[in-house]
Design a protein that fits this description.
It is a single chain. The protein is mainly α. It has a domain of 82 residues. It is 51% helix and 3% strand. α1 runs antiparallel to α3 and α3 packs antiparallel against α4. The longest helix has 20 residues.
């Protein structure tokens, strides 16, 4: 069985200072609604659930279309920070970066329904 990789305390600290990183235990993780059970909370065994929870928090707060774009970009930046912080010789960093782009594209292109818009798009 594979062991789940956790973000280092240094990475968590960096994310906390940058975006108000959260360890919300009530968060559903990655995905929303019907797809929450099928969207992985990991990128090559790196636990990204806390990053998804932070992104969910931003979506709940909502705002304008610009706020959604900022939230999605922040999500991508946090994913990249996390995968690049893995200090294991065997971690597939390049593939993980590509997976970050997949997650980013998904929220950017299909996240409108989950975002709490305060104004008309």
């Amino acid at each position: 069985m594979f062991k789940l990789l956790k973000m280092s305390e240094e990475t968590i600290s960096k994310l906390s200072q940058r975006v108000g990183y959260t360890k919300d235990k009530n968060c559903n993780g990655c995905g929303s609604g019907w797809n929450a059970k099928i969207v992985p909370d990991t990128i090559f065994f790196l636990d990204i659930r806390p990053i998804c929870c932070r992104h969910d928090d931003r979506y709940k707060i909502g705002g304008s279309k610009e706020d959604k774009e900022i939230s999605d970009k922040e999500f991508f930046d946090n994913l990249i920070t996390a995968v690049e912080s893995v200090d294991k010789w065997y971690y597939p960093t390049k593939l993980a970066r590509n997976r970050c782009m997949t997650y980013y594209s998904a929220v950017k292109d299909h996240g409108d329904e989950a975002f709490n818009y305060k104004d008309k798009k």
